[in-house]
Amino acid sequence: MKIRYLHTMVRVLDLEKSMAFYRLLGLEETRRYENEQGRFTLVFMAPPGQPECPVELTWNWDGDEGLPSDSRHFGHLAYDVEDIYAMCQHLMDNGVTINRPPRDGRMAFVRSPDNISIELLQMGGAKEPAEPWVSMPNTGHW
């Protein structure tokens, strides 16, 4: 029996704000589906050159009162990054809180505008631990 990964879906409250966050991570829109009858939009975003690995952002036009205030039940999305320190600095420079800094040179966690945990992992193994990351405390939960 074969199985093939399709996508991970997360519900978003503000489509543009959420898309801007995923663009900061380096993802790009690969396709979009708007359903007038169902009153929702699906936007698929993936790393460049990896359209087979998308996150599906689901936005309900009339709001989504059923969306939990804390999406911890979801788990997280995980992405390898070329330079974890540069990515975390880029995110911080754009107003994103680093919830779990990459103190070990290998792993960090941030949250999307919709409270989705995003794990960032250093490609190819840990970098040498460095400041300001080594001394930076956790912020909130991840």
Automatic annotation (TrEMBL):
Domain VOC, by residue range, is 4-123
Key words, A-Z: Lyase, Metal-binding
**Would I find Lyase among this entry's keywords?**
yes
A GO MF term = metal ion binding
What the entry lists under PROSITE patterns is as follows: GLYOXALASE_I_1, VOC
What's the protein name?
Lactoylglutathione lyase
What taxonomic lineage is listed for the species of origin?
A: Bacteria, Pseudomonadati, Pseudomonadota, Alphaproteobacteria, Rhodobacterales
